[in-house]
Design goal:
By secondary structure, the protein is of the alpha+beta class. The chain has five domains: about 100 residues, Alpha-Beta Complex (DNA Primase, Chain A), CATH 3.90.580.10; about 140 residues, DNA primase, catalytic core, N-terminal domain (DNA primase DNAg catalytic core, N-terminal domain, Alpha-Beta Complex), CATH 3.90.980.10; about 120 residues, Dna Topoisomerase Vi A Subunit, Chain: A, domain 2 (3-Layer(aba) Sandwich); about 60 residues, no CATH class; about 140 residues, Orthogonal Bundle (DNAb Helicase, Chain A), CATH 1.10.860. Helices cover about 50% and strands about 10% of the residues. The strands form five sheets. Strands 2-3-4-5-6 form a five-stranded antiparallel β-sheet. A hairpin with a 7-residue loop joins strand 9 and strand 10. The longest helix has 30 residues. It is globular and about 105 Å long. About 5% of the residues have low confidence.
Length: about 600
């Protein structure tokens, strides 16, 4: 992952206004000098989400979410910091400076940018062929027969690859792309130094996008009356595209997925487009018939429940059972939307309407209940032997559940249905689920939940945040023994080690963007609050309070001992002497500040 130069981060922060950025995602209403809305990060009925144009920060007084515009994009879009900066830079038309860790990283980044440009060119060229070229009439007729309008085709960037070995090859070369870039793109076949030729020919083209909407690959569907056994031809893996790490439609479905907490999972691109355009936008499709661990972890960022809507034939059932352990291991609740034999989402919605499909989805049972119901209806578990086979099969899937509580809950539910005890079902669960060895690129893990900052430490952070003089005074003090082990100390230390000018909103926002998510929320809440008057004086008095705190605790303990009954006079005298000494030391601390 490249590192973005600090001056680029500052430039991006200065070029974007947080009210405009957040307002581009959902409407904000003015509330005095700030703006507010219902919080997008938790469910609420009254708006507690506030955005301050003066502080260039946001904070929710309901759930505590808050930070800079970079943090907002990270949380709302579910992306990492670098991607958030890149998106805000693109929004402002800024070219950012990335500090690659090595020349090789720089070359890889340059190649990636060129391949993105090439795929953008390909998507536009295929789309032009579909909508306007005489050769695309067959593809247009096919889409018309599937009730896909030209507007929907444009929205999804559908295209057509003509029946030619070099039509797009010539176009790409004329556009300035070198053969080494063409060979790396996956858009052409021909290995080594052999001649290049178009990989996609006489096919309906579906662009595959990353979660930001950039085209990274293609899937080409054969058109009737062709009898080519390869119904789909897909891009091979490239520097842009790894088949097992992409989900078709995710770039459009991210917010609907996060809002619903539920992902409808279907097989094909046309099924997905039909479901999405019918109003159920929380839908994705794997690049194949089953999930990979990487795809499951990617989708888990947005949803907690997956509703599998695969074909009801043998291949569809196999896909469900191949996906199930992977989704369970990722923490999903898995439900199954069973369609009638011969139906798929596209045909069902076109024939019976979107509400018929929605009803099936809404009523989709949990996979384990679905499997038992199906076996009971078909009579497949009437014999003891058949029942044993099904119990062992379901117990094998149960091994993928992430914790013992989930397995025991399932056993309590299924045991009575098989007329066995929950303990018998648990005994059939294998001790370990199959290990996952596939590597996957993940967003940085969330920060572990820590204690709330000590109130006095929070007050010091506030003074250092709003006053450079207070920050410099605090940084010069020897407070290691006073502040040791207090919650919130690392945040104070980060603030004291920084040099941003509190009067410079851009510099303040850039500093906050470097903090972990919890730190950003803490600083945002302080920025939204009333600034302390006389920050230096408050900093001095707070340090004095902290220095006196252990002495006052000791004095309180001694005073309690003095009031105990039955003490000898000499013991009382000794304890009183200690109290007097503590009072003297507290007075000295007060006088030294």
């Amino acid at each position: 992952m490249p590192r973005i130069a600090e001056e680029s981060i500052e430039q991006v922060a200065a070029a974007n206004d947080i009210v405009e950025v957040i307002g581009s995602y959902f409407p904000l209403k003015r509330a005095g000098t700030s703006w507010r809305a219902l919080c997008p990060f938790h469910r609420e009925k009254s708006p507690s989400f506030h955005v301050s144009p003066q502080k260039q920060a946001y904070y929710c007084f309901g759930c505590g979410a808050g930070g800079s515009m970079f943090k907002f994009v990270m949380e709302y879009e579910r992306v990492d910091f670098v991607t958030a900066v890149q998106r805000l830079a693109q929004r402002a038309g800024i070219t950012i400076i990335e500090e690659a860790s090595s020349p090789e990283d720089g070359r890889r980044r340059q190649l990636r940018d060129r391949l993105l440009d090439l795929h953008r060119l390909a998507a536009a060229w295929f789309a032009q062929n579909l909508l306007r070229s005489p050769g695309g009439s067959g593809a247009r007729d096919y889409l018309k027969s599937r009730a896909i309008s030209s507007e929907i085709a444009r929205e999804w960037q559908l295209g057509y690859a003509p029946d030619s070995w070099d039509a797009f090859l010539g176009h790409a070369r004329q556009s300035g792309f070198r053969d080494e870039e063409l060979r790396s793109s996956g858009l052409f076949s021909g290995g080594g130094d052999g001649p290049l030729r178009d990989r996609f020919r006489q096919r309906l083209m579906f662009p595959i996008c990353n979660d930001y909407g950039e085209v990274i690959a293609f899937s080409g569907r054969v058109l009737p009356p062709s009898e080519d056994p390869a119904k789909y031809v897909n891009s091979p893996e490239t520097p842009l595209f790894t088949k097992g790490r992409a989900l078709f439609g995710l770039h459009k479905a991210r917010r609907p997925l996060a809002e619903a907490g539920v992902a409808i999972v279907c097989e094909g691109q046309l099924d997905l487009i039909r479901i999405f355009e019918s109003g159920m936008q929380n839908v994705v499709a794997p690049q194949g018939t089953a999930f990979t661990p990487a795809q499951a972890r990617l989708l888990r960022r947005y949803a907690e429940t997956a509703i599998l809507c695969f074909d009801s034939d043998r291949a569809g059932r196999t896909a469900v059972e191949r996906s199930l352990p992977i989704l369970l291991a990722a923490g999903f609740g898995v439900r199954v939307a069973a369609l009638a034999p011969g139906d798929d989402p596209d045909s069902l919605i076109r024939r019976d309407g979107a509400e018929s499909f929605r009803t099936i989805v809404d009523k989709a049972p949990d996979y384990f209940d679905f499997a038992v119901d199906e076996a009971s209806t078909s009579g497949a578990i009437e014999s003891a032997a058949a029942k044993t086979v099904l119990v062992r099969k379901l117990a094998g899937f149960a091994a993928s559940l992430p914790d013992a509580v989930a397995r025991e809950s399932l056993a309590a539910r299924l045991g009575p249905r098989f007329a066995i005890s929950p303990q018998a079902f648990l005994a059939a669960v294998p001790k370990k689920a199959p290990a996952e060895t596939e590597p996957v690129d993940e967003l940085p893990a969330s920060e572990p939940r820590t204690k709330e900052p000590d109130p006095d430490v929070l007050l010091l952070i506030h003074t250092a945040l709003v006053s450079l003089e207070a920050r410099q005074w605090l940084a010069a003090q020897d407070t290691a023994d006073v502040l040791a082990n207090l919650p919130g100390l690392p945040l104070l230390q980060q603030c004291l080690a920084s040099s941003f000018d509190p009067s410079d909103t851009t510099a303040t926002q850039t500093f906050i963007a470097t903090l972990d998510p919890r730190g950003q929320s803490v600083f945002a809440s302080l920025l939204m609050g009333r600034p302390p008057t006389n920050p230096v004086t408050i900093a001095r008095e707070t340090i004095q309070t902290l220095r006196c705190r252990p002495l006052e605790a000791e004095r309180k303990a001694l005073t309690a001992q003095i009031h105990q009954a039955g003490l000898l006079p000499e013991t009382i005298e000794r304890l009183q002497s200690q109290v007097i000494d503590i009072n003297r030391r507290i007075a000295e601390i007060a006088g030294s500040q």
